[in-house]
Amino acid sequence: MFELFEKYLRSKAAFTAEEMQQIEAVTTIKRLRKRQFLLQEGEVWTYNAFVSKGCLRTYSVDTKGAEHILTFAVENWWIGDLQSLASGLPARFNIDAIEDSVVLLIRKEEFDRLCQVIPALQQLVNALLHRSFLAQQNRIHTTISHSAEEKYRLFLQNFPEFARRIPQHMVASYLGMTTETLSRIRRNLV
Amino acid sequence: MFELFEKYLRSKAAFTAEEMQQIEAVTTIKRLRKRQFLLQEGEVWTYNAFVSKGCLRTYSVDTKGAEHILTFAVENWWIGDLQSLASGLPARFNIDAIEDSVVLLIRKEEFDRLCQVIPALQQLVNALLHRSFLAQQNRIHTTISHSAEEKYRLFLQNFPEFARRIPQHMVASYLGMTTETLSRIRRNLV
DNA sequence: CGATTCTTTGAAAACAGTCAATCTGTGTGG
DNA sequence: CCACACAGATTGACTGTTTTCAAAGAATCG
């Protein structure tokens, strides 16, 4: 499974064979079955995680039991609770597998150490953070400026992959509406 | 006005006198009157901008003429269109002054060059991006998981400063609701 | 097949937006 | 200094959208 990660890394920057070995040395593989937790609210998240197969989600559960999905992650995406990672505090979010999945884990301390000695890795992380920032900004913008139907249209445009793989009630949760509303929107689209 | 910026920088990291001079050498001061544009939709944004006095907003205008505010920035905040800055494409957003303001500008090329030679500056930028990422994630989470009234409550909690300085119709726009709705929410709060 | 999850539907209620009017305070020009 | 214009906030009546609750139908999985 490390090969997929290696392929991803090489597509983003140039790494020497030795650097790649250093990375592989600290990478562990975790297989998750559908519905299995990678992180549960209240635990402390201490990894950087790369999805090499499958699909996961990050979400919270409110006082009424309703789930609110913050992110999805499929192959070649990173996932984790940066808030908990940075602060060392218990996570406010859950992460679980939507499909049977494989994630690669690197402990924070080891990842940070590698970033010190492998400039390409540090740059990759910075670039990733930068792109994520812009993606989040876009999401905020569409969220505050469009109707439920328009949000769904944009979601289909931007993430056709997600729309295919992810159950509708989760898409609804991601978009901040109920599953009934999304169902009715879909009825009116055709 | 550079002194305020210097104070901010020194509060975040250690800079030598020479480094500080290098920064000052590329910094220009721009004074803006209330309502004056710093950036208009369609222009290319090529700066990093630091607010040393006043208050500004980043917003878009939709096809119906409605404004949607993405961010506010007061003293010691950064502002700009990262999307346009990174891509070189015309900005989708406007930035203008809500109060008479003073911003410090550093051209992108010069800023990037300084980041190469001043590690503390590069680190500051990374830390800032990291914090902004988390802040945006929080905003997304509250936006998709709370009612209009709860969003306003949380806004008051998180940004009491903004609530004091910023006209209500702009707060409403930032929260993704109409000014009438916010007005009615406030009536029911007391 | 039976159980569970997922999606759809309907009816009623809650919520938020629209439009139009009024009220307030501020600042500007005469 | 006043009159006026203008930006901002509020209100009411109405419309439209979204949620809620309850139920039933479809799809999936062991």
Quick structural summary:
The structure is a homodimer of 190-residue chains. Chain A has 190 residues and is an alpha+beta fold. Chain A is 53% helix and 23% strand.
Structural class designation of chain A: alpha+beta
Beta content of chain A comes to: 15-25%
Mass-distribution shape of chain A: globular
Give me the CATH fold name of the domain at 2-117 in chain A: Jelly Rolls
Taking the alpha carbons of the first and last residues of chain A, their distance comes to 41 Å
CATH architecture type of the domain at 2-117 in chain A = Sandwich
Averaging pLDDT over every residue of chain A, what do you get?
Answer: 97
In spatial order, strands of the major sheet of chain A run: 1-8-3-6
What does the model show?
The structure is a homodimer of 190-residue chains. With 190 residues, the first copy, chain A, is of the alpha+beta class. Chain A has a domain of 116 residues: Jelly Rolls, CATH 2.60.120. A four-stranded antiparallel beta sheet of chain A has the order 1-8-3-6. In chain A, strand 4 and strand 5 form a beta hairpin. In chain A, helix 4 crosses helix 5. The radius of gyration of chain A is 18 Å and the shape is globular. The termini of chain A are far apart. The mean pLDDT of chain A is 97. Chains A and B meet through strand 5, helix 3, helix 5 and helix 8 of A and helix 3, helix 5 and helix 8 of B. Chain A binds a DNA duplex (30 and 30 nucleotides) through helix 9. Chains A, B: InterPro entries: cNMP-bd_dom, cNMP-bd_dom_sf, RmlC-like_jellyroll. Chains A, B: Pfam families: cNMP_binding (PF00027). Chains A, B: This is Crp/Fnr family transcriptional regulator. Chains A, B: It comes from Hymenobacter metallicola.
